[in-house]
Design goal:
six-stranded antiparallel beta sheet, Beta-Lactamase, 35 helices, eight-stranded mixed beta sheet, single chain, 7 domains, alpha+beta, 1242 residues
Length: 1242
């Protein structure tokens, strides 16, 4: 939040508000808004150091600073933090601007009327001559107060009694005040103003609640205790002082009709500070007297001054001595060393930059210079922050202790021994709210007098020696008596074993000397004490408690008795046998007493263990229960969901604040909650039904609804808030519902996101549909003329072949020149026809590639596995390219590696169409780039491996992304996984390194010359890469320019049992289907082309394109087929009525019908509608038998082919196609081997 924003924001707030900048050190008031400035008495009081400031000051350490609201006098304030920097404090309750109480308007006149009137010559404090200038100034200040706005009225109207009372008050030397009227207006004397500090003179004539907000209503506060002490922070001469005052209030009785109280204030600051400082001195003397060496003495100093956080907000101690320890005595020797070691700090963080662990007083450091200067003076030396003689961080970089203020002054106190040897230096921060006056200095001097402590310690040692002598004598007597009670002690041990009290005795060296059976049972200590090892008992102490046990052992060994709780190792359930007891330890209360000789030397430790595991477990469970309840209560109030509880009548019994926020219900009393009024009207009935369902079912019930509260989404549109409710009913032992508990969650954001997601899905689906329509239209419009071109080219080629045969007979032998000319023309025409066919084939490949690419982009391309023979797949690829290779004079060989037999792979599950699509792309490129080379060889090798290891030397393209294993689907079976490899080698032009890097990219070829010289779109290898990766494989290349290339790819598959193949052609490209022969051996390309069969089929051609219709009919008739035509589906039905399939033919001599070639998209009636009508007529009996229908369409997508089959088509072939391909589909269909009607694509 910017500065201008915070000011502008709260300046317009009608509530009196001020802003505190927490980043300032110390935090200060940053801005006061206009509404607060309109209350000048409040605005001016903000800068006073009072309880209100302690509440809002972030550095304050008073308990009230944790409250969000605070009452100060008649005003109640609230605060909150914004942007982790600004603290906003707002006045939320102030005295109402109401009329004065009845009687107040007459009060001032009543005082004058009922009381004795003021005599014209009576002298008052306002009329007599005052000698004291200070008192005279105070009286003048009193006269300037606008008393007319108070209940006292103007001074001129004051009664004689009131004037007398005020005169007496002013002449009083003690701090005294009177509180008059119903609102306790304060009038005080000069001494009272002195103790009021900076509040004087502003509080003169104010109500006591405005003058002293800390005091509250005096009548109620002093009803039982007319005298009470207060701890105030009084600002005097610009310095905030810690002060203590004793207030006394006495009701004014017998002073006319004056209503008020008489108050005498006594400042007891010196007494309280003296008590506090004396207590600190006593604590210091007590703790230091117990020190036995220097380290303990330093530690005792810290423990003594640490609680005095107001008088010692910070402290540092450096030791500067050499210690010689003999027994328990401590001696100090004078030293020339100038090094000091840090012993401890109070109020400073660890590793403070200006408080080093080691301090050399010879070094020129501010702290070292100050300490050295204090050592020379020999007395406590004062250093103030503004002096700059000590590092600034010693004053400012301190923890919040005492009043939480930064230190303003510090003392460096040399610590001396009795022989004037300096042993250390104490650096203490002074009380931030007390002046360093004489009393303070005397107290510090008392703390510094450690010589008395040394003498006390020596005296205590002498007394201790005498006590030890007396104790030794007493021990001797006890030892004599002990021999008499041995038997009693034995009985006591037996009793201890019976009640589980474990007794033990250890030597000071740590060996167990004696123990009873209970001790061995509790601790697991070996009972054989003959080989007892020192401190062997620690091996049986529970790991986390070993340090505790060791520490108390040291304490006992030093002569102190200790009692503590600890744990011993044990096996779970060892004692209780309970399966629920999984603890591996036993709790005991252990008491240890040192065994001493007459001279006080500890020789052993005696003690006992009491098993307290049961108490510990009960305590733990109780604490867990309490903590769980506390967390649940805290969670329900702070959770982001709304919690509620209803009775059986659905009336709210409990709800948290978030429930009100979500539902939009005003925060009110539970009994006044009407949740039905907040439900959106259209959802109220459904919510009522769901609420009753909750009470009927014995499980959680979740439902959603809207409330009237508006929710504004990211699109700035406001809608009713959506709420998700989850509730369950609680029943009594009779099954009756006693309450319903549930939660409410605001799901408006989720509902908004769902609507956005739904809209985007619809847009995406519409975009996909339009894209598919565009591709279908483009494919349809390109394939239709291609089909006519291919078939016309075939017709011309056939006609030219007949002409060539006629030329070679004897008819033109008499005209050699004419014969030669005609042969040349026929040869030229055949070359032209070959060119047309090649161009048509090339254009079809581009259309197929674009169609495949669109499927890849739309994520519509799927892998459809079937059971196939890999060897048959290899032979099919050979037969597809046999003719093309023959024309290019390329030697084509295919070979199956022995690895398939080694792995016993005969059948496999894979998608043969997708595998062949990759193989076709590679073989097409191999033949294309080899046909111009001197050596023209292309080979295909098929192999198999168990691992996806590629062929040696091949640089495989890195996979773009790893997808999940598709072989886990059920349709892939459960056979063993293997990888099927295909390697295509050629003797083409080869590739450079730069050219190889461009392969397998979209619309990318090896070089710009490639398209010019060889053609192509640059999509084939990119599609091949995508298809291999979709099948869990990869593709790569090895090539040398001028030598040739090796392309290799592999796919992931599973072996399968022999099964019926769906088709011998696996949906192969159309050019190969009419030339498939079964031969699994490697073969050379043959040059002979088998002749077309001469079927006698009766075919109905249904085609709306007249050109395609005429070309197809001529081709079919040319090979001996009988053909009928129809321009659309309705004409097809009419023609079908003239065939023998019709139950009652339309003509007397119906003709035969072998198959219907049905176009899909036609006017009047399309192909699919016509096919559905034919199947409907078959079911009704109007058509007898099954009419074979083959879909003929330029739409080649798998989904479209499946739609055609779903409409009743038996099989399908895509344009463009050649007549041999069509005849192969017809033969397969009519022979009954269609295998469910597979798609044949041209």
């Amino acid at each position: 939040m910017q500065t201008v924003d915070i000011r502008g924001l709260y300046d317009e707030d009608p509530r009196p508000t001020f802003v505190v900048d927490c980043d300032d050190q110390p935090a200060g008031i940053y801005h006061v808004n206009s509404a607060l400035l309109d209350l000048p008495h409040l605005a001016l009081s903000l800068h006073a150091h009072n309880a209100l400031r302690d509440w809002w000051d972030p550095s304050s350490r008073v308990a009230s600073r944790h409250q969000q609201e605070f009452r100060h006098g008649r005003y109640r304030w609230a605060k909150f933090t914004a942007c982790q920097r600004w603290l906003i404090i707002t006045l939320i309750e102030q005295p109402p601007q109401t009329e004065e109480p009845k009687g107040h308007l007459q009060q001032s006149s009543q005082l004058a009327r009922v009381a004795s009137p003021l005599h014209p010559h009576a002298e008052t404090i306002f009329t007599v001559k005052i000698q004291s200038p200070e008192l005279r100034e105070h009286i003048e200040r009193l006269q300037k107060v606008d008393w007319g706005r108070t209940s006292l009225g103007p001074i001129a109207g004051w009664s004689y009694e009131l004037n007398l009372l005020v005169t007496t008050l002013m002449l009083e030397t003690r701090p005294t005040a009177i509180f008059l009227g119903f609102d306790h207006i304060i009038v005080y004397n000069l001494a009272y103003g002195a103790v009021s500090g900076s509040r004087h003179p502003a509080i003169l004539g104010q109500s006591i609640l405005d003058a002293w907000p800390e005091v509250a209503d005096p009548q109620t506060r002093f009803a039982d205790t007319p005298e009470k002490e207060y701890h105030f922070m009084i600002e005097r001469n610009g310095f905030v002082e810690e002060s203590f005052f004793m207030w006394s209030l006495i009701s004014l009785v017998g002073v006319g009709q004056i209503n008020g109280m008489y108050s005498i204030v006594t400042e007891v600051t010196k007494q309280r500070l003296l008590e506090r400082r004396v207590n600190a001195l006593l604590r210091f003397g007590q703790l230091s007297s117990e020190a036995v060496d220097a380290k303990a003495f330093w530690k005792s100093i810290r423990e003594a001054i640490y609680p005095s956080e107001y008088d010692f907000p910070a402290a540092v101690l450096y030791s500067h001595c050499e210690v010689e320890t003999t027994g328990s005595a401590v001696t100090y020797s004078k030293t020339t060393s100038r090094n000091c070691s840090l012993e401890w700090t109070i109020g400073y963080r660890v590793n403070h930059p200006d408080i080093p662990q080691k301090l050399d007083l010879e070094q020129d450091l501010p702290l070292g210079r100050a300490i050295a200067g204090s050592a020379k003076k020999g007395v406590a030396t004062l250093y103030r922050h503004e002096d700059g003689r000590l590092p600034s961080t010693l004053f400012t970089d301190v923890e919040k202790r005492g009043f939480g203020d930064p230190c303003k002054a510090m003392l460096i106190i040399p610590v001396r021994t009795s022989n004037e040897t300096i042993t250390g230096y104490i650096i203490v921060g002074l009380n931030t709210r007390r002046p360093y006056d004489t009393e303070y200095q005397d107290w510090i001097a008392s703390v510094a007098l450690h010589e008395e402590e040394v003498r006390n310690r020596k005296r205590q040692e002498e007394e201790a020696a005498r006590d030890r002598e007396a104790l030794s004598a007493e021990v001797a007597v006890l030892a004599q008596e002990a021999s008499d009670v041995t038997e009693k002690l034995s009985n006591f041990y037996q009793l201890a074993n019976a009640v589980g009290l474990g007794y033990f005795e250890f030597a000071i060296s740590g060996e167990l000397v004696h123990a009873n059976e209970a001790f061995f049972h509790q601790t697991g200590h070996p009972r054989d004490l003959s080989n007892s090892r020192p401190f062997a008992f620690l091996e049986h102490v529970y790991g986390p408690d070993r340090e505790l046990a060791t520490e108390h052992w040291r304490m006992s060994a030093s002569g102190k008795s200790t009692t503590y709780e600890m744990r011993w190792k044990k096996k779970p359930n060892a004692d209780t046998g309970s399966e629920d007891d999984t603890r591996d330890y036993l709790w005991t209360l252990t008491a240890c007493v040192p065994i001493k000789t007459e001279d006080g030397i500890v020789t052993g430790i005696f003690g006992c263990n009491t098993d307290i595991s049961g108490q510990k477990e009960a305590t733990r469970i109780a604490l867990l229960r309490v903590e769980a309840e506390r967390r649940l209560a805290s969670f329900t109030q702070t959770a982001p969901v709304g919690f509620y509880q209803c009775d059986s009548d659905l009336k709210i019994q409990y709800c948290n604040d978030q429930w009100f926020n979500i539902v939009g219900h005003p925060i009110t009393d539970i009994s006044a909650i009407d949740w039905t009024s907040r439900i959106y009207q259209d959802d109220l009935e459904a919510v009522t039904i769901d609420s009753h369902i909750v009470m009927q079912v014995n499980k959680l019930h979740t439902f959603s609804f809207r409330v009237k509260k508006l929710w504004t989404g990211p699109d700035d549109l406001s809608t009713p808030t959506w709420v998700l409710a989850t509730a369950t009913a609680h029943r009594d032992k009779d099954g009756q519902v006693v309450s319903v508990m549930g939660t409410l969650t605001d799901v408006s954001q989720l509902k908004w996101a769902e609507a956005i997601q739904r809209s985007r899905v619809e847009e995406a689906l519409e975009s996909k549909r339009q894209q598919e329509n565009f591709i279908d239209m483009t494919s349809h419009e390109m394939r239709n003329p291609l089909s006519a071109m291919v078939q016309c080219a075939d017709s011309i080629s056939s006609a030219l072949a007949e002409m060539e045969a006629a030329i070679n007979d004897n008819a033109l032998t008499t005209q050699p020149s004419l014969q030669t000319k005609i042969k040349d023309l026929v040869g030229t025409s055949i070359d032209a026809i070959d060119t047309i066919q090649a161009c048509a084939t090339h254009q079809k490949r581009i259309v197929d590639d674009i169609l495949t690419l669109s499927k890849l982009d739309s994520k519509l391309l799927v892998i459809s596995p079937i059971t196939v023979q890999p060897d048959a797949l290899l032979q099919d690829s050979y037969k597809m390219f046999k003719e093309e290779a023959n024309k290019a004079r390329v030697s084509l060989r295919v070979h199956s590696d022995a690895s398939l037999k080694d792995l016993q792979i005969d059948y496999a599950i894979l998608d043969p169409s997708r595998v062949l699509q990759v193989l076709i792309n590679l073989l097409t490129n191999a033949i294309k780039f080899t046909r111009t080379q001197p050596v023209r060889k292309v080979g295909v090798i098929m192999s198999a491996t168990r691992e996806p290891a590629g062929r040696s030397g091949i640089e495989y393209v890195p996979q773009k992304a790893l997808s999940q294993d598709f072989l886990d689907e059920q349709e892939w079976g459960s056979g063993e996984v293997f990888y099927l490899h295909f390697t295509v080698t050629d003797t083409g032009c080869g590739l450079t390194t730069e050219q190889k890097n461009k392969l397998f990219l979209r619309f990318s070829q090896a070089s710009p010359k490639t398209h010019v010289q060889y053609g192509g779109s640059g999509l084939g290898l990119f599609i091949s890469r995508e298809l291999t990766e979709m099948q869990g494989g990869g593709i790569g290349v090895q090539s040398t320019q001028g030598v040739g290339s090796i392309f290799s790819f592999y796919v992931k598959s599973r072996s399968a049992a022999p099964g019926r193949r769906n088709s011998t052609t696996f949906n192969l490209p159309s050019r190969a289907k009419s030339h498939i022969i079964q031969d699994k051996q490697p073969m050379l390309l043959e040059t002979a082309t088998p002749p077309l069969p001469s079927p006698k089929y009766h075919i109905l051609v249904v085609e709306d394109n007249l050109i395609n219709q005429r070309v197809l009919c001529n081709q079919l008739k040319k090979i001996g087929c009988t053909v009928q035509v129809a321009n659309h589906g309705r004409e097809a039905l009419a023609e079908l009525a003239k065939t023998k399939y019709w139950k009652q033919p339309a003509i007397s001599e119906p003709h035969d019908l072998s198959v219907v070639l049905m176009d899909v998209e036609m006017p009047v009636m399309d192909g699919m509608t016509c096919a559905r009508k034919i199947r409907s007529l078959q079911e009704s009996g109007d058509i007898t038998g099954h009419v074979p229908i083959i879909a003929v369409s330029a739409n080649a997508r798998r989904e479209q082919i499946e739609q055609a089959k779903g409409a009743g088509m038996d099989d399908a072939i895509s344009k463009p196609f050649r007549i041999p391909e069509l005849l192969n589909v017809i033969d397969t269909l009519l022979s009954g081997n269609a295998g469910g009607g597979n798609v044949r694509r041209g």
